[in-house]
Amino acid sequence: VAHDTVAHDTVAEFDAELHLRLTGEGLLVDHPGEDGGAWETPLDAVAHALVAVGALPVATAQAIVDDYYLARSCRSGEDHSFRRHRRMAMMSAGAGPPGAGPAGLGRFRALTCGQEIEQPWGNLVIDYVVLSDDATVLHVTMRPSAALGGRFGRISPAALRVRPGPRGKAGHIGPGVPSQLTLTDDRGTSVTAGFSGGGSPTEWTGEFEARPGLALDTRWIEVLGQRIELVDEPGPGIEVWAEPVAEQHPGRRYLYARLAMLLQAHGDAPLDTTIGALVAAGALAADDPAITEARAVARQHAQGGSRRSAGRLAEPWRSLLAGRGAGPDGRVMVGAATPPFGGMLVAVLAIRSTAEEFTADVEITPGVPHWHDGLTVVDEPMLVWWAADDRGGHYLGQPGGWHSAPDRAGGQIEFWPTLDPAATRLDIMPTTLTERAVIRIPLSWAVAR
Amino acid sequence: VSRPPWWAGLAAAEAGLDCGGRPHRLRWADGQLTTPDHTDDLEGEQILSALGGQGSPCLDVLDLWTQHAADLRVLILASRGPADPLAPWTPPPSSSSSGRAGYAGGGFARRARVTRTRSYAVLSHSPPDDPGDGLPALIGLGGLLPDRLAATVIATWAGRLRAPADADAGNAAADAGAGAGAADADELAAARPALHAALYGRAVTALRSWTGQRDLAVALTMISEGQPPKLARDGNGIAAELPFGWLADVWARGLATCWGRFCLAASPQPSGDGWLLSTVGPELDPPRPVTLSSPPG
């Protein structure tokens, strides 16, 4: 019963443990089994907040959370051990020398392409290519030929899950559309790349990935009988740095980060749960103006926002919630990696803007789960994807298509609102509780084909 | 204050168990868990089982019971009352497939061990990383045994909290685990959040059942043992002031509500025959006594 007899160094720590335990009791006695599959429970939110502001040791909070989930499984008969298994996987992946920091992202080249290859089934557009030490990835768009009526036939989801085996044959995801491609480099090395992605009857986007990949410094690759020249273009003036976050008050810092995560997830997890925990732990005064501001932002967001009503909010919330018209259309190659910040490294490969949204393709180490996974460990790293343009506009991003392993993750960050067409510079700012990285990108749009 | 044994008023309870292919009983009565289908020579049986390469599920349960008799985690897992039923426990797939000891087909899988008290780590009923540590199996025994385990833990901690006052009254041995030496002040202080939470969940469940309001807001203050308990209106909810010992004296004995009234305290009749309850009605008027006579026999 070690965690039941922990010493409390401060009154706040005592109150924090009691607050967490009472939240756990609420999990069991307040409408048990009626959380509707929410992506996180108040217990998760409270534990995470208390640990983040240093009100409760990680081990104590985790043990209490585990016990209450075990209690819940004693009632529902469900197995909640996945939480423990995930934590062990994270611990295993993180096992390294103390203070060693995140493992590197390795060397990589991100190269714009835009080459279009005509096939009997339609067109394969290779948007850009990423070569790294361990993989070669072609980011592609596929559109059906007019001969098919301009529409793909029914595409089997099962076919999309098929990855090329060592002796695997090239499969198809539709009428002739390949699920695998053979890639060859200037050394004569050939590899098979498997497709993953998604789309509509008129367009599919995704990646053909070969792991291991081709030579990192190859001058060209050959795909479907066509040679694609890989030219490292001069850097377009991209700047990268890391810096502390501006807000120094631990309670407010956490509240703002949590607010951003709830907004980006369009979450139904009540902000008041987090506020209650921060106040109980003494990390925020009950009358702190940040609480009023956070509630106003959450309310504004829930009501849909408008330029007029958002005008009463401070930045970055005002421009975020004010709404915006159609964004510009195009892609900017980035290919830049950040220095370590908050125990992480991020590489931004490219950004793409359309009338409806803009996205960034990223890789990150260590692995960060999709927000759908919720706060399954009490010290889950917080990563908020902020962006800001040179016209004062702010944006929030969330993982869309996402792959995650304990040591590495990546995919597409989908930002909202749409990008200001008049912006000439964009800062992508992955932000942890204490530090953020800034990837400053001059916006020189290449028309995406 | 003369206090009866903590198990007074708690009916005996039994659960069945598959013990090496034989249907056995576990019986709790008067604060003790026993295995009526085994001989009195438990150590001898244990050694014989170990030598034969067999486990003894009944004795394993006795070990676990002893291990968790003061474990506050029991109060997290155990039921908060009739409105909080538990599901039958089933072993996680990993424990049965790996051949670890654990319940299988109603009994613990066979597992050799040597002594009852020192081999706990060896006979671990769950994977080493499992926070359950055999406790889910114990909580899932079925019948009233999990409630009796919870009552044991409650009595242990109530005894510790009351130890100073009871020592003054010459009543130190009245509750399980009581004793000034065991009631380390630091340990008690550290356990207060868990004790408070255990009281909160059970009091809230009892008050909601009593009022019929499943969303009733309850503000609970855990008062010191010896302070007078009370209920009061708090907006649309109820403000309750109860000591942890309310769980031992009232809740564990199933006396939380009686004749439509909420019981704040229960003590034995001065005559020693029956119980005297201090109760409040739905209007939260001043407490009134209710007298219960002991059942015949």
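The longest strand of chain B covers residues 22-29.
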